[in-house]
TrEMBL record:
Gene3D superfamilies assigned to the protein according to its UniProt record, in alphabetical order: Electron Transport, Fmn-binding Protein, Chain A
UniProt key word Amino-acid biosynthesis: no
InterPro entries linked to this entry: Flavin_Rdtase-like_dom, NADH-dep_flavin_reductase, Split_barrel_FMN-bd
Record domain Flavin reductase like: where: 12-155
Pfam family, one: Flavin_Reduct
PANTHER family per record: FLAVIN REDUCTASE, FMN REDUCTASE (NADH) RUTF
Species for this entry: Dactylosporangium salmoneum
Name of the protein in its database record: Flavin reductase family protein
UniProt key word Oxidoreductase: yes
Keywords: Oxidoreductase
Length: 167
């Protein structure tokens, strides 16, 4: 890889970001992945963006007609890790999922769950940037901060009364 690519990766490894799990109702059942690229885009209409790299779940999410973006808090560090790795447990009853009438899985105890419809999809290299309108928002419990930093999911120690960092 070029020096610029390596420096680019290093720059963003050191940039803490929020953590989300994005879910859809796929043709063979629910699908989802962890994303650290979610950002607000517009208030009118309410819209957000995220990017996904090429994987089976990413292809389903990038092509879905509806999706749910779950903004995660401190209690969901393990869930973020599960959805970040291939073959991790997903959509188990212990994780707290339910399903919307339209089929999308929803994590009721997420800090927020945003039901969205894509407005635009833009291919950029091996990634797809999705801009989606937010149709509905459910605000869940506030349980502290979860960020992705230096290739780790980090729970703010103040959010869990001094609990150690979770990796």
């Amino acid at each position: 890889m070029s020096p610029v690519v390596e420096l680019f990766k290093a720059a963003f490894r050191g940039y803490p970001t929020g953590v989300a799990v994005i879910t859809v109702c796929g043709p063979s059942g629910p699908a989802g992945l962890t994303a650290s690229s979610v950002a607000s885009v517009s208030l009118v209409p309410p819209a957000l963006s995220f990017s996904v790299m090429d994987s089976p779940s990413a292809r389903l999410i990038a092509s879905a007609d509806r999706l749910v973006v779950h903004l995660l808090g401190a209690a969901h560090a393990a869930l973020a890790q599960d959805f970040a790795r291939p073959g991790g447990p997903r959509f188990t009853p212990e994780q707290g999922w339910r399903y919307l009438p339209t089929g999308e899985p929803v994590l009721d105890k997420a800090a927020a769950a945003l039901v969205c419809v894509p407005l635009q999809r833009v291919a950029v290299g091996a990634s797809t940037v999705v801009v989606a309108e937010v149709l509905d928002v459910a605000i869940g419990p506030s349980d502290g901060r979860l960020v992705y930093h230096e290739r780790q999911f980090v729970v703010d120690a103040a959010s869990l009364d001094g609990a150690p960092l979770h990796q």
